[in-house]
Design a protein that fits this description.
α4 (about 165-180) packs parallel to α5. The protein has a 7-stranded mixed β-sheet with strand order 3-2-1-4-5-6-7. By secondary structure, the protein is an alpha/beta fold. The chain has helices spanning about 1-35, 40-45, 50-90, 165-180, 190-205, 220-225, 240-255; strands spanning about 105-110, 145-150, 155-160, 185-190, 210-215, 230-235, 265-270. The longest helix is centred in the first third of the chain and has 39 residues, at about 50-90. The protein folds into 2 domains: about 1-95, no CATH class; about 105-275, Rossmann fold. It has 7 helices and 7 strands.
Amino acid sequence: MKRQQANAEVNHVAMGLVLAFAAIAVVNTLARSVSERVREFALLRLAWATRRQVLRMLRTEALSVLPLATALGGGIALAVLTAFSIGMTGSADPLGHTPGPPGRRRGCGPAHPRRHRRTGTRRAQPTPGDRGHRPGVDRPPLRRHHLALADPTRRAALPCVPGRVSAAKARDVAENMIQAHPDLDYAFVANEEMAFAVRKAFDAAGSKAVKIVTVNGTDEGLAALKNGRFSATVSNSAADTGELAVTNAIALLRREEAEKVADTPVRLVTRSNADTAPLYCPPDDY
């Protein structure tokens, strides 16, 4: 929490500096514009224009340009920041993604960006922002790279916190999450690298009972399944994904029909079937 507060203060200072430099740039631009029009003002004075009339003309020009510049600048900034907010939080309103009120929370987990994956775990209801959902497809609700609280009784995601596909960031988020919700039961983490960092954070906080479900199915992940550090993982073989991508690319180059959206085969792996899990990245002589 303290780190987040410190980051917020640094962001405010940075924003203040940006506004200060922007104000300096505006003043310099106006000063240069006026200095370049000295001859024009001199001609106006020779044409019997009074000093007050010249100043009134400059004031009218400034007041005319100000609303237009404000509208254009605000529109461009709004478009860029809205796209950035949607990419980072899944919503155009980043302020809407704040932790919910204290109470019993069942789990947390970062959503996964691969929206077109299938798994036979359970039939999931679409979550807000899950535009890739198709009725009748069995797969867990997948969203963007966030750590999100989840309530399985409603089968819906609660407010999210960005994870940004970084092990260090995931650990920071997990530390804050377990402090705010010490009764956490499980976490879904977008990949195994982040999952190991989250596991360390939970263990350090004395919450070894929190179950972790993740994605990949690497040798290290399967070993963590067997020793109980993970409860489950969704195997998405890199070899299968690569083979599927190459096959579709060749089909497109040959002007043959290819699926617009290709589904990579996935499989839920637990300790009971870890020995039969597909290889994530087979050796060269496989």
